[in-house]
Amino acid sequence: EKLNVIEDLTSQLAENATIYLADISGLDAVATSDLRRACFKAGVKLSVIKNTLLAKAMEASDKDFGELPEVLKGNTSLMFSETSNAPAKLIKNFRKKSDKPLLKGAFIEEEVYVGDDQLDALVSIKSKEEVIGDIIGLLQSPAKNVIS
Asked: Higher pLDDT residue, 143 or 34?
């Protein structure tokens, strides 16, 4: 059974370019339910996982998680998202009401971020859609100046 869980985790790690590790211990049932609801609305998949299983899945993965296995202590929740800054924004917004969740680390597009102090940097990362929007805006501005 544990082998199946490790295989599933390894495939999830391989399929996702945005992976966050957070500590949600200490949240009561209502707060945890609110967090799960917020994750669902933001398109973030949240699951609580055993550290040993996650460490083995990281080991089995082709990706280089750098220092991330070292933060696997205590309660660990795994967050997957298509948008690289969505989990960071969600954590920051949720912290307006509570001191949790704490960011343990993140793996985004081959980059490893470790520690809760990285949260603001992760929030400021632009999503693919935002970058495309910026480029389109830049491309349109010279044309608008010529026409007017």
From this structure: 34
Dihedral, CA of residue 125, residue 126, residue 128 and residue 132, to nearest 10: -150
Contacts of 101 (CB under 8 A, 6+ apart): 22, 23, 24, 27, 35, 77, 91, 94, 95
pTM of the model: 0.82
Q: What angle do CA 46, 51, 53 make, to 5 degrees?
A: 90
Give per-residue pLDDT as tens, 16-38: 889 999 999 888 999 999 999 99
Q: 111, 131, 130, 133: which is closest to 122 by C-alpha?
A: 111
> How far is the C-alpha of 29 from the C-alpha of 95, rounded, in Å?
16
